[in-house]
Amino acid sequence: MSTATLPKIAAEPKRRPLHVRLLNREAPLGYTLLVPTMLMLLVFLAFPFLWGIWLSVTDAQIGVDETKFIGGANFLYERGDTVFIQSFWNTINYTLVTTVFKLVLGLSMALLLNQVFPFQRFVRAALLLPWIIPSVLSTLAWRWMFDPTFSVLNWVLVHPLHSVGVNWLGTTNTALASLMVVNIWRGVPFYGISFLAGLQVIPVDLYEAARVDGANRWQQFREITLPLLRPVLMVVLMLSTILTFADFQLPYVLTKGAPYNSTNVLSTWAFNIGVPGGDIGIGAAISLVLFPILAIAIAGVLISLRSKD
Amino acid sequence: MAEIRDITDYAAKDAWSRRKFLQATGLVAASLAAGPIIEACGGGTSGGTSNTGGPYKVPKARAGAKVQLLQWNSFVKAADDEFKRQAAEFSQANSCTVTIQTVSGDDLIAKTPAAVEAGSGPDIIQMEYGWPHLYEQACIDVTADVNYLKGKLGAIHQVNDAFCKVGDAYRAIPYTQVPNAWSYRTDMWQQAGLSKFPTTWDELASNGKQLSDKKLGQIAVSLGHAYGDAITMWYPVLWDFGGREATADGKTVTINSKETLAAVNWAINTWNSNSIAQNTLSWLDPDNNQAYHSGLISATLNGASIYLKEKNINKKYIDVTDNAAQPGGPKGLSTLNLIFNHAVMKWSQEQETARAFLLYAMEHDNYSKWMSVAGGYDAGPYAAFTNDPVWGTDPKLKPFHDVVPNGKWPAWPAVPSKATAQSQVQFIIVDMFAKAVTSKDAKGSIADAEQKLKRIYEKPS
Predict the structure, then answer these.
(1) Which residues of B touch A148 (CB under 8 A)?
(2) Would the N or C end of chain A have less CB density within 10 A of its end CB?
(3) Going by CATH, does the domain composed of B7-178+337-393 fall within 2.40.30.170?
């Protein structure tokens, strides 16, 4: 009779704790790692945004404890505000004009920086400076350059160039144009560096093949560069449009809405009404006016990007 | 639990829960804006008051207390330094800490409502113009302290009184006025063949034209959003031609009148004849100071800081700088000075120490010392300081003394209120003049101002 022992049944492996099992899987781990960011977004973005919506439908005033829901009354009230209407169109104007210029100049800058030339890295870094310098500081510097009495730009116009000085911030047209100039100066590096990153990942082989096929530089740009740069272009345009619509520091520091509210944009007018004026409910309503338009525009861009993917 | 009968009940229940959730997350996040706003919405904390019901007790500082006071950077640094010195002296004497934080006037305009809305921040905030009316609920009642000071220092100047008193209670302790008068270049005046500074607005326009024709420095005043210089210039012009923003009860807008038209036409004619500089539509408060110290203009309306800087620091144009009182118009002579008062905030944990410090600062000797160091930049709000020795130290300071009695407040004669404060921060009157001189459309500019004022004064509650 065989005395061989039956093989021992292997003991069941010890089960790892639930949290270890979960975190070893990609999806739960991914969501867990997102929690701190989501909390920050919830607290510092979502909550203030939702609070702003709440304020816009109340008669909230700074320093007044009692608040009551009034529906859309703040939005209706602003329909009769001529400064609000002017600020609205200023914002649209300001955003459209600066975006076009930033797009053209940024793309040009990227195409130039994509070439090889001496001190290329230094030039790339230097061209980023307008974007890096804190916007209030750079705007103050521009205010000095536009100063009605001491403008260095006017000195150059008058003395070496024997021309006439310009009242940069003193007329409605020049003041708004000055705002646009500063915004463009500040925003072009963002466009440029983003497009440069996009250009660098376009395979060089495509250009070589195109040259072999007889395509000239413009055809290469139109048929290769632009289509492949499109995703970056859309994202940059979307971000820049949002930031420019909401621009506050630049108009506030440069002109404070003068001359006679002609350079107020929605953000500065909302601040003026809501903060020193005390009507924070109305201020919140003004600042939310562009939200539906921006939301539709952003949704369109994102859908367009996804459909191409 | 209430029975849920249909989807609207559920929605109502759910909506209330969402609101509670938002409030709860706000508290957890301890967002600067969230907690105190929710606290305020929930009923708020009880307001402080110096009125205890019984006999008045002079507040005493608590040993170990920490009090912070937020005020503007006045254009005379020595005055701020003296105030800080007195705060240090008070702190040492009472074993507490009083810190003075100075910010620019524009920053004060932004920080104050932020602190009020958050329900936290400095214990004492310097209130500019009619802010006690805007932030009434955030300022404690200091009526007893003000009455105590009135007993010691005499009557309060009508403007400080109007700004500090909201209804029946004082919400701020009167502190100071920054008198505004004209600083001008006597050498340029002589070169233009002018013997003295004008005493009427028409003379000012005429003098300005002569200076301009001779290519001497122009008369220059801000037509931009300068919270000091633009307000102190254009409200008096309006008043001196008989124009009024609203009625005394603040219920009816009266800006659209032939008197206002006269004032605006004066501005247009003065502008068109090049009697005043035309590059001032974007001027903020420091701009006229810089232009004067650079020798580019012949006269400007300002506090005494231009004169004092020439006298004490620059010394370049001091021998050819003199000061003159505000000109008058066909319907009177008015001035408007920059007004500051101190409010103890409701959220302060050291209200008694804060009050004690403010009373210390207003003690006759301390305040007089501060006025002396300020060199004529500041005027006292109580009768006891009307003829303070500082006014006798320099005859050129006399105009800054003389403009104080006629001082009025923005939107006068309308009683200071939220509406008058709003019309002032929106620069409606200044913009009316600015728009008129550039568009040459007096009636259109007035109509535009009227529409804006009606939206504020006649806003449905």
Answers:
(1) 279-280, 282-283, 287
(2) N
(3) no
